[in-house]
Amino acid sequence: MKYYDKLIFELSKQGRTGYSLPQTCSKCKGTEAIPAGLLRSKAPELPQVSEVDVVRHYTNLSQMNFGVDTGFYPLGSCTMKYNPKINEEIAAMPAFGGDAIYKGIDSALAAITGMKHFTFKPCAGAHGELTGLMIIREYHMSRGDTKRTRIIVPDSAHGTNPASAAVCGLDVVVVKSNVNGLVDVEDLKPLLDDTIAGIMMTNPNTLGLFEKDIRQIADLVHAAGGLLYYDGANMNPLIGTVRPGDMGFDVMHLNLHKSFSTPHGGGGPGSGPVGVCDKLVPFLGVNVSGFNGNFGVILRAYAYILMLGRQNVKLCGKLATLGANYIKESLKDCYKLPIPTVCKHEFVFDGLINDGARDGKEGAATLDVAKRLLDFGFHAPTIYFPLLFHQAIMIEPTETESKETLDEFIDVMRKIAAEAAQDPDILHGAPHNTPISRPDETTAARNPILKYWDACAC
To answer: For domain 316-437, is the CATH number 3.90.1150.10?
Structure first.
């Protein structure tokens, strides 16, 4: 085992220390001043290591992580864009007034989205979804419209949409997609009655396709007395180009930790502010949190918006869309493209055109492609989602990636496709160059080992 493969407990040597504390002065009582009930009965089981061991341990751990600062992160459905470091500097400054920041970003987001006002209480996107649905429910209840307990969700939606609706006490009704991957308007029409509270949509949708019938859908839902909810997870290609409010949406959430560049690797922190149209402003006070979300995230997002300014904000969506279409068109002869049309910020392949399966030999699957990408220093795209396609590979570059980076990714994807056609076993064994290869992800999720002492034999 190499030095840097060892856990810090395995580097421990009895009596070794990495610090030196001064002797207790004669005026101090040391631990005598601490109440007996707060003292340990025995020393904690901490590793005994030198300072250099500690430094190397944490440095090596950091190098095992993958983030947008270390490489291309084309994670479809979860925009992973570069986080400008000026945002970090500003967020670390102590002299900001919260009220002024909230007022400023409220105005900026309202202008970008076409909403009237935002609440910043939701701490993440799913929290924002729940908040928006609670606003919709409260709106109908205030009008005595108590029968509206059902929410329409497209079959291509993010999984959080039906989950949030269920938590809010609403029943989910699924509307199907047509052969072009868009909401089937004819399937929607029979679903609209006086029990429908609204419809949850993202536009572009989870396939990266713009819902071109959105105005017709909005008119149909509004005519039936329902409201339109916009899932802002896919807002990145629209920033500065199209506003959800102008499409007819009444309430929406934004993922500041996606579209507005703030860090969100490792599960947080996030921010999911919710914006509403004029008639829903009185319901913005719905009680979902005791404070205004994660202030540091909000401050970073506001710094990002101000840094870009009105003119450069308009480039975000256009460049993100350009990059996605460039990759799609460059790889569609190697990977199956189920819907061959112009996409927005992301697109979906349905596995390899030639996976190498022949004479009873197992071919390469989407999982194999994702694992092999790790050997070339790229993070894998989202796989097996959306569920509309069996071998889905969802790819989303962002506007901050250069053409050279996109070209390198395209070259690697083509190389992997060639390997799959010639010798899929290369992919079956991937990754070959990472600290670990293929863990049992199901067992790791259901029965995680989080402590060293549970994992060792002692």
So the answer is: yes
CA distances from 117 to 239, 257, 405 (A): 17, 19, 38
Ranges for all domains in the chain classified under CATH 3.40.640.10:
85-309
C-beta separation of 152 from 198 below 8 A: yes
User: How buried is residue 360: exposed, middle or buried, by Cβ count under 10 Å (0-12/13-18/19+)?
Assistant: exposed
Tokens, residue 51 = 């300072």
Global pTM reads 0.90
Q: Are 275 and 109 in contact (CB under 8 A)?
A: yes
Separation of alpha carbons 416 and 241, rounded Å: 35
128/99 Cα distance (integer angstroms): 20
**Chain region(s) in the chain for CATH 3.90.1150.10:** 316-437
Domain 85-309 -> CATH class: alpha beta
Q: Which residues pair with 174 in a beta bridge?
A: 153
- Dihedral in degrees, nearest 10, Cα atoms 74, 79, 80, 84: 130
User: Is-contact 398 323, C-beta < 8 A?
Assistant: yes
Chain segment 200-246, per-residue pLDDT in tens: 999 999 999 999 999 999 999 999 999 999 999 999 999 999 999 99
Taking residue 112's Cβ as centre, other Cβ atoms within 10 Å add up to 23
Count Cα neighbours of 392 within 13 Å in the Cβ-side half-sphere: 22
Rounded CA separation 411/417 (Å): 10
Residue 37 has pLDDT above 80, yes or no: yes
List all residues 6 or more positions away from 56 whose beta carbon is below 8 Å from its beta carbon: 3, 4
Specify the amino acid at residue 13: K
Residue 53 region, left (φ>0) first, then alpha (ψ -120 to 50), else beta? alpha
